[in-house]
Amino acid sequence: MTRTRGTPSTSHAGHWGFWWAAVSVWWTLDGVTAAGSYIRMARKAGEPATWGHALSTGMPSALMWIPPTMLALWTARRFPLDRHSWRRLAPVHAAILVAVVVARAAAVVALNPWIGWYDVLPPFREVVVTSFANNTFLYLILVGFGHALVYAGRARDREEQLASAELSALKMQLHPHFLFNTLNAITAFVRTEPLVAERMIARLSELLRHTLQHAGVHEVALEDELRFLRSYLEIEQARFDERLRVRWDIDPAVIRARVPHLILQPLVENAIRHGIGPRAAGGRVEIEARRRGVRLELVVRDRGVGMDPGTARTGVGLSNTRARLRQLYGAQHTIEVQGAPGRGVEIRITLPLRATDEEDDMPGGDHGAVRVTAPEAEMMAGVLSGAAAYDEEAR
Length: 395
Fold this sequence. Notes:
The chain crosses the membrane at residues 16-39, 51-74, 94-116, 136-153. It holds the Pfam family HATPase_c. By secondary structure, the protein is of the alpha+beta class. The protein has two domains: 15-172, no CATH class; 174-356, 2-Layer Sandwich (Heat Shock Protein 90). The protein contains eleven helices and eight strands. A six-stranded mixed sheet has the order 1-7-8-6-5-3. Strands 2-4 form a two-stranded antiparallel ribbon. The chain starts with a strand and ends with a helix.
C-alpha cells in the first residue's frame, strides 16, 4: 500500500539563492536611505553629521534585518497560515517573533561598544522593550510578504494543475482512438439497438459540454462529477461490453459536497486501462463516496489484474491527481493506493467535507451535515437512479 499526505509546495518562495541576494540588496539600500535621512535631519537641526557616522550606525541596523527577513520567508513557507492551520501554527509564528525581537536586542547590546547606538547602554530589559516596539510590526509585515508569496505560488500551481487536468480530459475525449472506438460502438447499435446508440451520442455530448462548462473551475459538486463519470463509463462499457461492470455506492448525504473538478475520471480511466483491460474476462469498477466524520471519503476500486505488493500504480492520471490534491488541500487530504496481483487496486481519498453552498469548513455533528433541499433531492435521485440503472445494464 502506498499512502501520501499533502505537504506544502516546494516552489512557493522561489530559489533561496535569489532571495538571499534580493534581500541583501534591499536592506543595503535601506541602510543607505536611512543614513541619508539622518544626515538631512541633522543638518536641518544645525547639528554636525557625516556620511561615515551615519552609515556606521544606520547600515548595521539595516543589515541585521537580513537574517530575520529570510527567517520570515522560510517560516511562511514552512508553516503557512490558512483557515485550516492558523490555530495550530499561530503560536509557532508568535514564538519566532519573540525570538527575533530578543535576538535583535541582544545584538544591539553586543555591538553597541563598536557602533554606538547608545551613549549609555540601558539595562537589557529596556533594550528588549525598545526592540519589541521598533521591530514587531516590521517583522509581521515580512511574514505577511512571505505568505503573499506562498499564496501566489499556490494559485499559480492550482491553475497549472487544473489546466493540465482539463487538457487531459480534452485529450481523452478527442483522442482519435477514443472517438474511433466510441463511434464504432454507436454504429454497431444504430440498427440493432437505436435507443442505446442515441444514448451513447448523448453521453458523448455530455462529456464535451461538461468539460467546456466547467473550464477554469477548481471544485464542483460531487453530483456534477458523478454525472460526468457516468457519461464516461457508459461510453467505456459500450466498448468493453460485458467485460466491464460498474458498482456505485454513493451516500446521498454527500452528494452536494465539494470535490476537485475531474478528480474521479482519471482514476476510473486508470482502473479500466490497467486493471480491467488486460483481463480477458474483464472485471468490475466500484465507485464509492461517503462521509467519515468531518471528512469526505472517495474510493475507486477495480477488480482487475491488480499490482505487485510494494509497487505503486503510476501514470499521468494518478500523479496529476496527487499534485492537484496537494495544491488544493495541502495537509488536509490523504490518498492511499492498495492492491495485490489478481485482486485489483483500490484508491482511497479523504478530503475536508464542505458543501458547495457553504464557504466555511463543515464541522461534525448536525451542523456539519450536508443539507439537501427537495429539488436537490430530486436531482440527486435522478443521478443515482441513472447510476443504478447503468449498473443493472452492466450486469
